[in-house]
Design a protein that fits this description.
Signal peptide: 1-30
Protein name: PEP-CTERM protein-sorting domain-containing protein
CATH topology of the largest domain: Jelly Rolls
Order of helices and strands: HEEEEEEEEEEEEEEEEHH
Oligomer: single chain
Number of helices: 3
Distance between the termini: 14 Å
CATH class of the largest domain: Mainly Beta
Low-confidence stretches: 2-11, 13-30, 253-266
Mean pLDDT: 86
Number of strands: 16
Helix content: 10-25%
Keywords: Signal
Number of domains: 2
Largest sheet: 9 strands, antiparallel
Length: 270
Amino acid sequence: MICHSRFVLLFRVLNAAMVMSALTMSSAFATILVNENFSHTDGDLVGKTPTPGPGAAWDGHSAAGTNPIQVAGGTAVINQQGGEDANSSYAIQSDTSTTYARFDFSLPASTNSDIANLDANGLYFAHFRGGTGTSFRARVGVLAPDSGGDFKLVLSEDSTIGDGAIWATELAFDTTYRVVTEYNASTQQSRLWLDPADMSSTNITATNSLGASDNFGYALRQSDDYNGQQIVDNLVVATSFDEALTGVPEPGSVVLMLCSLVFLAGHRVR
């Protein structure tokens, strides 16, 4: 009889755990906002839903339909000859939130020789998106080289990339880099890591703030500032650095509590 009661207790705890897990599953995964590996058929990016997800289907928000961003070989190809910008939207993040993005990128040597002619304002090709052009944040961009490299990597809050934070060393064509950016709306500043191991890795901070802003999408941008390309892959937008870097959701506190309950129930049965 005692043994039966213990098994009934274990069954009830496990059943409650399953119910609570189902109810909290969405919140456990909700901190990854966009996960996009661009594993689509070649063609226009707009209209495609991020894989493996989450994230809303890519939508054009500037110069819609003109020279759209292309998917080619499982990557997004951004052409800097003027054209459509695109974004994948998510639940609005408030003007006191902190949001992170990670993506891989490269600049092919074959299409970027003109970067040497880029003016001092530079250009940005990826950013968090708010409701207007003045609410774009953590803009990732490039500048012409001047120290023997192929280009400079820059993080800026405003559209004048040249007055943003510049990575200390110039980067090389035909090399894939991993970028993680942070937009902290409370401090009105952005940070950028290049090929980080973790959050303590070297980073730069953009302080040319335009004020606090919410954000509800991540965007890829095409301009006509120079004739060149950026290749982007493996985009993740999340509410923590670790989730952005790894693309793996952290377990929620409720899920951890459920695991503890099941563990304790197992000991009670014994």
